[in-house]
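Ticket 4471: requesting a sanity check on a complex prediction with ISE. Repro inputs:
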Amino acid sequence: MAINIAVIGTGMMGSAHIRNLKDVPGAKLTCICDADTDTAERTANQNSCRAEVDPMHTIASDDVDAVIIASPDYTHASLVHQCLKLGKPALCEKPLASSAADCKQIVDAEIATEKRLITVGFMRRFDPDYLALKQALNSANTEVLLMHCFHRNATCPDWFTAELTLSNALVHEIDAIRWLLSEEIETVQVFKSKKSPKSNFDDPLLTVLKTASGTIVNAEVFMQAQYGYEIGTELVCADRTIALTRPSFATVKTAGAEILPITDDWTLRFKRAYTDELTNWINAISDNRYIGASAWDGYRAAIVTDSCLASRQTGQIIDISMEETPALYK
Ligand code: ISE
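Returned structure tokens:
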């Protein structure tokens, strides 16, 4: 039987999920919710489903079995709580909430339900290139000494800030580090470099993170790199390096040059990851299983983000406290 889905939010990510849901067997889009009535109705008409403007009512509706939360970041926490209250599975875009304290309340509320209902949209865990990287690392049976990451957007919206660079963009690297290395991050330090003349905030930022076992990771996030959207990761091990493959768009040879195009659209770069994330999420709901990044992962990522935000203010190294993983998330 198909799972009836509501998508809340029709911005860049909500629209991508609406498109990608068409490729996901077993999912039926029944409702699109947007705070703007015209946008909600137009998008719902285009997708042959009904429109809502009230997200709380959307989640409570009988024709909604599971919810994709892709509204602005600051709205995530209250919507996730509504899903938990009504026992409905949710795929919530990152970040899970605006602060670690808010994420902790979500974790506590989920533990009280005794069931894992919340998946955080850390879709890189489903990206074929990241999965290949993780597999190459696991089969090499070696230790990672150093890790280099970069995360570049061509441009970002006018309202973007250095804080969002950390909470909205770097948070992907934070989760990828924890997931790839299977360990927690113990310290962080954020460096402002020279500011790009194209930017009105500190851009790029470089963050240095240290894991519990002592691996040092440097992560550049550059929100206005101009040339395109590009993600890179290289693991430096004792006898090898293991790097993320670049996604293959066709190579073009013309006018004395060989061109390997780079998209400027992250929903294209990670199309397969987003679709596989949705497919796995729907299958897991049907089988009463759980997949992907949990509310606990969202909480641990938020602790690291909050520490990065603090370090950006002072330039100091921030120590991050370790906590026992609750039984529900083991
Ligand atoms: C954006 O919000 C995303 O979710 C993308 O995955 C990320 O790479 C991009 O930098 C963010 O701005």
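Notes from triage: The first strand starts at residue 3 and ends at 8. Leaving this open until the requester confirms.
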